[in-house]
Amino acid sequence: MRVHTGGCWDTRSRCKPVDREAARRALAEGVQACPHCRPDTALGLLEQPMTRDRMSPVIVIHPPDPVGGRRVHAGSTILGLAHSMRDLREFLRRAGLDWEPEQITASPLVEWRGGGPETWD
Question: What secondary structure letter does DSSP report for 52?
Answer without folding.
Answer: S
